[in-house]
Amino acid sequence: MKTPFFWLLDIFSRSSQSFIRRDMMVNKVTSYGWLSQTDGMVIAVHEEYAEVRWPRGERTLELVHHLQPIVG
Question: How many domains does the chain have?
Fold first, then answer.
């Protein structure tokens, strides 16, 4: 049985997953809130994972809740 904390965490993580979409610019954020990679472009979103192309040409599969949209 899940505790209320984990139940709320599931709800909030689902809402952020729907916010990340294809062709969106993103930064990768660690669990401590530090930027680990910047200026990525989302290629595709698969449920809780997103394929991201980074400026140096690498492509990675990232958890959606580790991605922060770039606004502005």
Answer: 1
Whether this model's pTM surpasses 0.85? no
Q: Please give the Cα distance from 72 to 62 (Å, whole number).
A: 22
Q: Which domain holds residue 37?
A: 4-69
Gap between the Cα atoms of 28 and 57, Å rounded? 15
pLDDT tens profile 9-46: 665 655 444 589 999 999 999 878 788 889 999 999 99
CATH at residue 35:
2.30.30.140
